[in-house]
Design brief:
The complex is a heterotrimer of chains A (268), B (476) and C (235). By secondary structure, chain A is α/β, with parallel strands linked by helices. Helix content of chain A is 46%, strand content 16%. The chains are: A alpha/beta (268), B alpha/beta (476), C alpha/beta (235).
Chain lengths: 268, 476, 235
């Protein structure tokens, strides 16, 4: 199979590493293209991708204060992904949940904790996995447009995902990357927040879209589908001409195979 | 102060529609965050100092009884007096008694959030003693009969036109046609107005950013100098402080002071940092004759040893307010009590109860920006989550919400069922939304679709497509 | 308030799982108080030599809208003050604290300056004081209250002029505390704080209205610092 990524010679992962793809419930329901873009990027970088039985990482229960259900879901996830060398999710939010919060969930359960830690340290967000673990320096992809990149909060603050997507995007032919002022300000999605406090969420996402439009970009990219659905939904309601995509779609050179988020089928 | 936190949603809606407030918040969002960032960039050791600050406060909390007792002993040695107050009512009573004992008619006040917390001004006024707020922001809101909307910039919710209007209404002895369009004129007018009040006051009340156990001192930090004029010109100086304000030594205070101004306003150091220790000495020619420190508990000792202990590290810098997108959207009054923003969302439920203040820890996206700028590295989102856990245990969330969550959890714990449900939803919604690519309205989703379109699913779930791909791959 | 005291301490001790604060668990705290060690000291000022510290102090003080004049000796103070007041169209009247550090100033050399020594009155527009130290790290003055340096002289006048000797410029607040402890211990055999220690960084200001910084809120509008070289510390 054709490799479309260039891997730095000091990539410290054995070829054919078994990567369990945690596709995330939003990608599964709303936009499988993102999942397939992730698969392509991982396979091009030499990984063997598996998709174990999965449903959700448990974050909605966790953030609603339901620790018991969250633990049950977490154990289920960990059992399902046993045997994978890595667990990779195209989402900083889900990866953060599994990498940072699973150990916190079981902090007072010494019986479970070592296994949880062994699981969590294998969990990565997609773009930082490609860049930091696989050593991918460049992808071979083309995208004609000017893009602003939004830093999804969990990826940024829990996992340090910031430079990696920007670095890879700068190598995409035809793409001009504009720095977004306030890129690190929350878009207002916040999982259940956007439906519990819709007025405030709406204000936050309106501010975000205004900031994006002010850059002159025609494209908005991010690494989390929750943020993207929120921002795309606001942009189209406000009548803004903005192409919204998951960063994986652009990096995997798959932008031409599917319309932007929220656009009708014939729009490219 | 009576809490309206239960009405947070209504408060927030009102705030979102208030053009003056939104203009003022726009200025905050534009200016405050950048100032802190610039100050932090200038001090390479800032990150290391955050760790040290956290360590100092954690050490204090582990030894809180010891340091408070040492502080008390030192204050007594200096000829001052420490008053332990378990709650707001006791604190009000003690302050009133001191003021009455001094024959006070007017009392000048430096900015003190503890004063707000215990409702001191109303109590003094009801007992014939006039409290005079001297901090410019506090003075403005005193005239407007409002409460502070930010812990360090109390009037930040106002635009200058509103302040001018307030001054015109209040300072009727001045020429009504005088120009008041610019902050310069407003500042000069406040200065001229306040000077005689400083000189006439009988008692001066300040807060305390820190108390120092080693020396029996209290520290206030201001830019205006009002706190100094308050505490130095009167016969009696009363310090209002909650238990956790204590730090061990002058050196420890210096470390925390390096974090405070930079985090709060982006200044290297506040204009006036003042360390006061007891009443005047016998040989001094100015200074108060009496020094009283109110040590207020009001719920702090109950937090020690709990999952909320870390909020006791807070040094009241306000950085979390300045960087919070929710605070930036609705301002401080929406939170409905003394402490708003992220730190208020953790502290307020403790002080007024989770039933009253439940909205506060729920109205967060857990973006984590607050924690990332907190000089004391307080895990604010984590503690908000703990409040949600308490609510969940006590069944305090709305029934509809709990039911939805239970249904969702039921499906998620059964992956085969979940996969089928997801495939069905993807198919139904995908088909319905294919033509336009999005929904303008959707039953059960009004919260979302009121202000946003909902992008349509692609039509098949990933798991379905993956299974198809794998089947094809095996066949070939 | 004994009841409240016992209640609060009892509550704290219950959470801390002990019955007294005098036991071995608080040994670290006792040591911390006794040793009062500095924590991390930023390199910014600490790494400089005396001339570098003075330069940094002046730069940082000017940054916060203090004005600074560096002069050759106490003899030059009257001239510098007269020039400053003339420059700002201020009357040539000052109140000076009865501070021994200001004793050597030959005011008579500028007879147009009217100096009164003592505690400030509300009508005094300009006040001149000495200080305990100037902290280079942030351009901060450290002043102590005392019978010869009433605190209100730092706050009531519209214009505050401070005489800072070059040998008083120190790198950090920690150095200031060390000097204060040493001085007090030498004077009295033990360390007791003065009633007030003021750290002053520039003139009074507020940003309470629309975050716009305005000088001269309630304290002095103007802070003028005279950095005086080549003076030995007074005996």
């Amino acid at each position: 199979m054709a490799h479309t990524s260039e891997i730095a010679s000091d990539g410290n992962v054995a070829p054919g590493a078994r990567v369990g793809l945690f596709v995330t419930c939003l990608v599964d329901l709303f936009r499988p293209s993102v999942g397939f873009a992730a698969v392509k990027l991982l396979e091009d970088a030499g990984c063997r991708v598996e998709v174990p039985v999965q449903s959700c990482c448990g974050q909605p229960a966790y953030n609603s204060g339901d620790r018991a259900d969250t633990k049950a879901i977490a154990l289920q996830v960990m059992r399902s992904f046993v045997g994978c060398d890595y667990v990779v999710a195209p989402s900083g939010s889900c990866a953060g949940m599994m990498r940072i919060h699973y150990p916190e969930l079981f902090a007072d359960e010494p019986g479970f904790l070592p296994d949880v830690q062994r699981f969590s340290e294998r969990v990565y967000e997609l773009v930082s996995f490609l860049s930091d673990v696989l050593g991918v320096e460049r992808v071979i992809a083309r995208y004609d447009g000017t893009a602003a990149y939004h830093d999804a909060c969990s990826g940024l603050r829990e996992l340090g995902v910031r430079e990696q997507p920007r670095k890879l995007l700068r190598g995409v032919a035809g793409l001009a990357l504009k720095e977004l002022p306030g890129a690190d300000v929350c878009c207002g999605f916040g999982g259940t927040f956007c439906v519990k406090y819709p007025d405030i969420s709406e204000r936050m996402v309106s501010d975000k879209i205004a900031d994006v439009m002010a850059t002159g970009a025609d494209t908005l990219l991010a690494g989390d589908l929750g943020c993207l659905l929120n921002m795309a939904g606001r942009a189209s309601r406000a009548g803004r001409k903005l192409r919204v995509r998951h960063v994986a779609e652009v990096l995997a050179d798959m932008a031409q195979t599917t319309p932007p988020i929220g656009a009708a089928a014939e729009v490219r | 102060m009576q809490a309206t936190s239960h009405a947070f949603k209504e408060n927030a809606r009102h705030a979102l529609g208030d053009p003056n407030l939104q203009a003022a918040l726009g200025i905050l969002k534009r200016d405050f965050a950048g100032r802190r960032g610039a100050a932090v960039a200038r001090l390479p050791e800032f990150e290391a100092l955050r760790d040290q600050g956290r360590a100092i406060k954690d050490h204090v909390l582990e030894n809180l009884d010891f340091y408070l007792e040492r502080f008390e002993a030192k204050v007594s040695e200096l000829g001052g007096q420490v008053h332990w107050c378990a709650n707001a009512e006791e604190a009000r009573a003690v302050v009133l008694a001191i003021c009455r004992g001094a024959g006070a008619r007017t009392v000048t006040k430096g900015k003190s959030m503890i004063s707000e917390e215990i409702g001191l001004n109303e109590h003094l006024a009801a007992n014939g003693i006039e409290p005079v707020e001297t901090d410019l922001g506090e003075y403005i809101i005193q005239l407007r009969h409002e409460t502070p909307s930010h812990i360090i910039a109390p009037a930040i919710h106002l635009v200058k036109e509103q302040v001018a209007e307030t001054f015109r209404d209040a300072h009727r002895h001045l020429d009504p046609a005088r120009p008041l369009a610019e902050p310069r004129a407003l500042c000069d007018e406040a200065r001229a107005h306040m000077r005689p009040r400083f000189l006439a006051a009988d008692v001066g009340i300040t807060g305390a950013n820190f108390l120092i156990a080693e020396t029996g001192s209290s520290i206030i930090v201001t830019n205006e100098g009002n706190g100094d004029l308050t505490q130095n010109l009167t016969r009696v100086h009363i310090v209002l402080a909650s238990l956790e304000k204590i730090v061990p030594t002058l050196e420890d205070a210096s470390t925390l002071l390096r974090l405070l101004a930079r985090s709060a306003t982006g200044q290297e150091f506040s204009t006036y940092t003042t360390v006061s220790s007891g009443p005047r000495r016998s040989e001094d020619t100015d200074g108060p004759e009496a020094y009283h420190v109110i040590l207020l508990d009001n719920g702090r000792s109950n937090m020690l040893g709990t999952e909320f202990q870390d909020i006791l590290r807070c040094i009241r810098c306000g950085a979390c307010f300045n960087h919070c997108p929710v605070y930036g959207a609705v301002g401080g009054h929406a939170y409905g009590w003394v402490y708003g923003g992220p730190m208020g969302s953790v502290l307020t439920p403790q002080l007024v109860g989770i039933q009253e203040a439940g909205n506060l820890p729920n109205a967060s996206t857990f973006c984590g920006r607050c924690e990332s700028v907190c000089p004391m590295k307080i895990p604010l989102p984590k503690m908000m989550r703990h409040w949600r856990e308490r609510e969940f245990e006590r069944h305090l969330a709305p029934g509809r919400y709990r039911a939805g969550l239970a249904l969702w959890a039921f499906a998620v714990k059964r992956p085969a069922l979940y996969r089928a449900a997801s495939a069905l939803a993807a198919s139904v919604l995908g088909r319905a939304g294919r033509a336009r690519g999005r929904f303008r309205a959707l039953p059960l989703a009004q919260g979302w679709t009121k202000g946003r379109d909902l992008p349509a699913p692609e039509g098949k779930s990933f798991m379905t497509l993956w299974a198809e791909r794998e089947k094809q791959r095996k066949a070939s | 308030m004994t009841d409240a005291r016992e209640q609060i301490l009892g509550n704290l001790r219950r959470s801390l799982k002990r019955t007294t604060s005098e036991g071995p668990e608080t040994e670290a705290a006792r040591t911390r108080l006794a040793e009062h060690r500095p924590n991390l000291i930023p390199a910014r000022a600490a790494s400089l030599d005396p001339e570098g510290r003075i330069a940094l102090f002046i730069e940082m003080a000017r940054e916060v809208a203090a004005t600074v004049d560096r002069i050759a000796g106490m003899d030059a103070v009257p001239g510098a003050v007269a020039d400053y007041l003339a420059q700002h169209n201020l009357p040539s009247e000052l109140v000076a604290t009865p501070d021994p550090a200001l004793e050597a100033i030959p005011w008579h050399e500028r007879p147009t300056l009217a100096i009164r020594k003592g505690i400030v009155e509300p009508s005094d527009g300009v006040g001149i004081t000495a200080c305990f130290a100037g902290i280079a790290e942030t351009g901060t003055l450290m002043l102590l209250s005392g019978p010869e340096s009433p605190t209100r002289n730092n706050f009531l006048p519209d214009t505050h002029i401070v005489v800072l000797r070059a040998d008083q410029v120190i790198p950090t607040y920690e150095e200031g505390w060390m000097r204060l402890r040493t001085m007090k211990t030498l004077q009295t055999g033990h360390f007791t704080m003065p009633r007030t220690v003021n750290f002053i960084t520039g003139p009074s200001r507020t940003a309470d209205i629309e975050l716009k910084i305005e000088l001269g809120a309630h304290g002095p509008r103007r802070l003028h610092i005279l950095v005086v070289d080549d003076e030995p510390a007074p005996a």
